[in-house]
Amino acid sequence: MPAFTLSFLLLCQAPQQPAYDPLARTGSPPPSQSFTAVDATRERTLPLRVYLPEAKSAAPVVLWSHGLGGSCDNSKYLGEHWAARGYVAVFLQHPGSDESVWRGVALRDRMPAMQKAANGENLRLRCQDVTFVLDQLERWQAEAQHPLHGRLDLEHVGMCGHSFGALTTQSVCGQSAPLIGRKWSDARLDAALPMSPSRPRGNTAADAFAGVTIPWLLMTGTADDSPVGDQTPESRREVFPALPTTIDRYELVLDGANHGVFGEGGGRLFGGKPDPAHHRAILALSTAFWDTYLRSDAAAKEWLQSDSARKALAAADQWQLGKAVATSPATKSDR
Q: Is residue 16 pLDDT above 70, yes or no?
């Protein structure tokens, strides 16, 4: 048999690799687990909800920061999906800007209490929480008897959050703001995903984002307004064009989605009509983003930066990306 014919036959018989699909799950993650991180120095106790993948080997970590008045139990659909995709999803709870702000408070007093809690001091505490939790995860990873021992790949860590959690994410991932007095960036973070991002205050966009050195994926909606924080759907979109061209950057704008779209109710809390397509888009793009920048998955990057990502969205959704200009690669020690 001619050699070219044999090669052709072998090629035809070779198993085909399945196309990259960020919504595919290889299994169901075990039930989430609750932990408590106690920062004795600050006299601050942080509840954590941790979603673990089935595999017992060390896995990349994604931190999640809730919005104002929320908790570590919010948006569990994200934690469950990311864990099913092989990530350890660690959902933080921030005392002082969590559900304690409104629980037990008379209905007429809840909004003033929320507005009062949306301050620079709580943002500073949240940034410190992120750094402390990363330190705590390092200790638990090394502690032979701890349930998280050996489960955490802390060389590959992503940061994500919604609303006040998005501002927290922005602040620990390179954005500076006079509101909190100094930069709170943590060099251990490799990728940022703010949901309902906030434009900077007190300094120019160029100054605010000059220190950003890691990839960002921004997510918002055309109706993403909020009664707290003086942000509008238009102001949230000021972040993407202000990001440095030296990083990969992405923006998803979900058509018709309001401020609650990233929560479990899909926007119902803010009077919207939930659209299941929104959550599918959020899961697909966030997963491809983590796969690209926490796993260096070439197929995921090709999907994220091609028409495939666009096909995961509704026709009226908006999607844009900016690839980093050629520059010397930054190491964690450079950040």
A: no
Cross-strand bridge partners of residue 92: 48, 65
Q: What is the DSSP letter of 98?
A: B
Confidence grade of residue 94 (pLDDT, cut at 50, 70, 90): very high
- Cβ contact 260:273 at 8 Å: no
> Distance of CA 330 to CAs 60, 215, 334, Å?
20, 12, 6
Measure the CA–CA gap between 303 and 328, rounded to whole angstroms: 24
Structure token digits, residue 208? 């605010």
For the chain, domain boundaries: 32-326
Structurally, at CATH architecture level, domain 32-326 sits in: 3-Layer(aba) Sandwich (3.40)
Among 208, 175, 154, smallest CA distance to 332 is for 154
User: Exposed e or buried b for every residue in 254-277, given b needs 16+ CB within 10 A?
Assistant: bbbbbbbbbbeebbeebebebbeb
What is d(CA 61, CA 131) in angstroms, rounded to the nearest whole number?
Answer: 14
CA 129 distance to own-chain centroid: 16
Per-residue pLDDT, 313 = 97
Helix (H) / strand (E) containing 140: helix 120-142
